[in-house]
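hey so i finally got around to running the thing on that chain from the lab meeting. sorry it took forever, my laptop kept dying and i had to restart like 3 times. anyway pasting the input first so we r on the same page abt which one it is
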Amino acid sequence: MSNTIYVINPNSSTTVTDAIDRALEPLRTPQGPAIACLTLPDGPAGIQSQRDVDGVIGPLLRRAGDLEEEAAAFVIACFSDPGLHALREQSRRPVFGIAEAGVLTALTLGQRFGVIAILPTSIPRHLRYFGAMGVMGRFAGDLSIGLGVAELADEARTYERMSATGRALRDAHGADVIVMGCAGMARYRRRLQDELGVPVVEPTQAATAMALGRVLLGDR
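ok and heres what got predicted. didnt touch it at all, straight out
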């Protein structure tokens, strides 16, 4: 059996996958398990609607199925957690969604969490999910930066908007921990945390850290 945690980016953007790969570097050790970041070629350039979310579930399940015998665990690297429960039914390995893991991690770091979304249309999906998770009692707010996944590559504009949104969540909404609501934001976590002075959760790191714990404890 392979000792590899597969982190699957369900969109087709290799730029996003590369950013995720760099963000996970601190979790890699010579002893393993290995962490491999993959792009889903059949996915859209960015997952920005419920239709996008629903449309990637089939290709995601097929890709994970092909990797089942090689995998120690799976991480679905999209903040909508597409196919999370379906993959848990399909696979014998531990499966983590970054939205679920990011929020659960935030609850260990503060009392009220705020989320930085990419687009206003992302927010209703997030709210449905947080309601299903039963965490709305500790939810401070969800604000968007008004940029699509592809636009996150513009570092100056993206960081300026993330900074302003993070300050609004902290100061106007009472968030004492911030969750980044898209895997494409990974490169900005440390800088944003240093500026805001509150914990900032990069959800792919959070999910992969959980996967590491499960694999190292032998819980497959």
